[in-house]
Design brief:
Blueprint lengths: L2 E3 L23 E3 L9 E2 L5 E2 L20 H5 L5 E4 H15 L3 E5 L15 H5 L4 E3 L4 H13 L3 E5 L10 H8 L2 H4 L9 E6 L14 H5 L5 E4 L3 H13 L4 E6 L6 E4 L12 E4 L4 E5 L3 H14 L4 E5 L2 E3 L3 H11 L2 E8 L4 H13 L8 E5 L8 H4 L6 H11 L2
Helix pairs in contact: 2-8, 4-5, 9-13, 10-11
């Protein structure tokens, strides 16, 4: 698995959370955890944690479980290993093979292969008409993609950086999201808009934006965020097959994650969250790169005697309130960890949805850890203070479970 250099993160919390107790750790690397959350948590007495009722006390003398036994680790594993950007390309290529109406357009997506090589080799295989290099004119080629979708094609529009798609915001909002409705159902807009975003490594303010909350408010748009090679491929295929416009958010620091994925074809749901780690004491909701900060914190929490349940929400619009609600009913405590901005971010919308639907099941106020409401600094030491760190997650869970 690849290694992510964890950028430091600033804490935003509810009014019951004492931010003065936080201590930011030094920069370090973290190992990427397992793709799927299909494993069980084993207590020190050998019993398996799978009860649906609420835990009355913390696990004592808990230890982090090991991923594989020595015998299992020597056995050959099915599937094939891919980096996340390769998984995106494989999903895209499979859909282009399956459906001749699928096409790609954007800056440098052709013979250059895309800024992050997601479309590498596709222009040679499919030709310049299906993999179209465009001028630096986001408003124009996004509008062209929407028009192509109206006429029966299934275009994938790549934003070289999600921040650049602000130049096409009118096309995405007034046309992409509304034309199905304003045409009385005469037109469908099966378009995928995808590209990298998030805080990278000193990319500057204009290249480090998290625009999930910008697009979340647009009626008629679906939004998903990939976090592993497995769900990157599955969500890409699902987005291309959808009859709705879909925005697929990728994170600039996750492209080189490696994971073994199945050889057989699979498609992920655009509206389902992923249970990463079952638990009983607190529900931690996260997505994209913050999934790995949460899983690093979870190792510390387990050794401290806590049993966190980690959910990668994946679907940013609509939320999977079925999975989220069942978890809240079990744990009665919620921590949201995101890289989006505190004010008006995904966490704010998620907090409102949980409060509206599951408030009676909460035993403590919801805590939301988000980025600071500032442009991301270029200076590395300052950049590290703009997003959430594992140590802050540990502190928040300890306060929630008091």
């Amino acid at each position: 698995m690849a290694t992510i250099v964890g950028a430091a993160t600033a804490l935003s919390a509810s009014k019951s959370f004492d931010s003065r107790k936080l201590h930011l750790p030094s920069r370090g690397s973290l190992s990427v955890s397992e793709r799927k959350g299909s494993f069980l948590v084993v207590r020190s007495d050998g019993s398996v944690v799978h009860k649906a009722h609420r835990a009355q006390k913390l696990i004592t003398n808990a230890v982090a479980t090991k991923a594989d036994s020595s015998a299992a680790s020597t056995a050959p594993k099915p599937g094939h290993e891919l980096l996340l950007f390769e998984a995106l390309r494989e999903g895209l290529e499979e859909e282009m093979d399956r459906d001749p109406t699928v096409c790609v357009m954007g800056e440098d997506v052709g013979h250059y292969g895309g800024s992050y090589k997601v479309t590498k080799g596709l222009a040679t295989k499919y030709g310049d008409l299906r993999v179209l290099d465009t001028p630096i004119a986001e408003n124009s080629f996004t509008g062209m993609g929407i028009g192509a979708a109206m006429t029966g094609l299934r275009p994938i529009v790549e934003g070289m950086n999600m921040g650049f798609l602000l130049l096409a915001f009118n096309q995405i909002s007034n046309n992409c999201g509304m034309l199905h409705y304003t045409s009385g159902g005469q037109f469908k807009i099966p378009i995928v808009i995808r590209g990298p975003g998030g805080v990278g490594r000193q990319l500057g303010a204009e290249h480090s934006q998290r625009l999930e909350s910008y697009f979340q408010s647009i009626p008629g748009i679906q939004m998903v965020a990939c976090s592993t090679p497995y769900n990157a491929k599955g969500l890409m295929k699902a987005a291309i097959r959808s009859e709705n416009p879909v925005i697929l958010f990728e994170h600039v620091l996750l492209y080189n994650l490696k994971e073994r994925i199945p050889d057989e074809e699979y498609v992920c749901s655009l509206e389902e969250a992923e249970m990463v780690r079952p638990g009983e004491h607190v529900t931690i909701l996260t997505y994209s790169r913050m999934r790995y900060h949460v899983m690093q914190a979870a190792k510390t929490l387990v050794n401290k005697g806590y049993d966190p349940e980690v959910i990668d929400i994946r679907s940013l619009k609509p939320f999977d309130l079925h999975t989220i609600g069942n978890s809240v009913k079990k744990t009665h405590r919620v921590l949201i960890v995101e890289e989006c901005m505190r004010t008006g971010g995904i966490g704010a919308s998620l907090t409102a949805a949980i409060t509206e639907n599951f408030n009676d099941y909460l035993d403590a106020p919801i805590i939301c850890l988000s980025s600071q409401d500032v442009p991301t600094p270029y200076a590395g030491t300052l950049e590290e203070w703009t997003v959430v760190q594992p140590a802050q997650i540990v502190t928040a869970v300890e306060q929630l479970c008091q």
